[in-house]
Structure formats: C-alpha cells, structure tokens
Known about the structure:
Blueprint: H1 2-17, H2 28-36, H3 50-69, H4 96-106, H5 112-126, H6 131-135, E1 142-143, E2 148-152, E3 158-162, H7 165-177, H8 179-185, H9 203-216, H10 225-238, H11 243-250, H12 255-258, H13 266-276
Antiparallel strand pairs: 1-2, 2-3
Amino acid sequence: MSSYRRDLRRYASFLSTRGIDDVAAVETADITDFLAGLREGDSEHAALSAGSAARTVVAVRGFHQFAVREQLTGDNPAATVKPPGAARRLPKALPLAQIEAILEASGGDGTALALRDRALLEVLYGVGARISETVGLDLDDLNLAESVVRLNGKGGRSRIVPVGSYARDACDHYLVRVRPQLVTVGKGTAAVFLNARGGRLSRQSAWAVLGKAAQRAGITSAVSPHTLRHSFATHLLDGGADVRVVQELLGHASVTTTQIYTLVTVDKLREVYATSHPRALG
C-alpha cells in the first residue's frame, strides 16, 4: 500500500509541474510522458526498474478507473496506456573534452563551495558513482590514503572502487580547506559533501551543481549525473577495459546491464579496424 501511495504522489507531483490540478484535465499524452520518464529519473526522483515502472502503471490506471467510477471525470485517459517497454536506448556519453570543460567550470572561481563542487563532480565522473551513492558518502567510506572509496549501491550492495588522482586531489583540497568550515555551521554530520548550512548535500542540489557547471562550460545538450556515469563507462571501454571490470566498477548485478555500453563504442571499433587491418581499406 505504501508503494501505491508513493507512486501516486510522484504522479501528482508530475501533473502539478504541468499545471494540472483537476483529474478531468488529464490527457493520455500526459500519462505517457510521465511513464516514459520513470526509467530516466529526475532531480527529485531516482530512476525506476522495469518492475517498479510497471507497478506505477497499475497504480495510475487504478486511480483513473476510480475517478471514472466516482464520476470525477467522464472518461479514462489511462485505459490504453501500457507499461514502458524493456527496450533500452543507448546511454548518452559526452566526449572527454566536454567532461573536462565541465570539471574546470565547476571549480573556476576558487571559492569554498566551488572546491566542493569540483570534488563532487570529480567523484561522479572519476569513479562512475550514481548520484545517490555520491551524496550518500560518509567520511568512513572515503580512503584517500589508499585511493579507494566504498559506494553503497542498490539493494544494499556495496563495492570498493579506485579513486583516480584527479578525484583524490579534489577531495583532499575540499576536505582540508572547505569541509571543516561547513561542518561548524550545522549540527555535525559524517557526510562527505555538505551544503552551505552544514548538512548533507541533497540530490537536487547536486543536480543543480552539475547543471550550472555545464552551462558555464557552454554545453548545450542535456547533462545529468547519469551522463557522467555513462561517460565514465564509455571512456573505460574505449580505452580497452574489459566489460566485466566495468560491470564491477558500476555495481551492476548482471553483465548484461553493462553490455549496453559496448554498443556505444562501435565507432571506436571501426576506427581501430580501419587503421589496423591490412585489408580494411581498398
């Protein structure tokens, strides 16, 4: 029952963003747009699995059936709506030059919060972490001396991931120069990334940090925290990493989830083939 209420609250929030406050004003297109976004997630909600998205479809259809039965509306715009399909779209990855431009833009003014922002984005891209894993980091999870971090992922699974030199240095600068100032403002917390009030940085705030950095870097395409994760995986595979190693780094339960990224690198494979095989070009 709690899942049902949560699904409907998310649906109501979506309708509110469209200025819809009357069930009779909902159209089928509104419902399909809502359901299409369930697998993507947004600044306030995590992406849903196929099973959870299907459950949400049932909740929404049941709500509209109730509305018709109670004569709150004359028709049911959800009657023909089906659960989102299992087909996957290719992940969006940015070229390395654009990633570097975003990272540079995040810490450009050298202020305290800019150093935090730089560390945040370096972790998102440098270790391929999910946004929830990154803002959920506590100090005990981060071991800069050994250049590793423990990420607490989906289903209660945790994994140890290497931290590259850029992310390590950015975190070191933030933890030494900025975090001590921020933590004194709040009530004390073990969180790594803090907001200006000394509390744990939220998902929404982390999205905003990335959005502002991308804007300053002149990136016109849509950029989300998952874009950095996609780019992390794609760049690893382009560099020759084994797909099972990438699976472990991303925290995927099955390698089939990771293999979607191999489709992104087909252009790289063509390039290597064209320059390496003796009979590739005629």
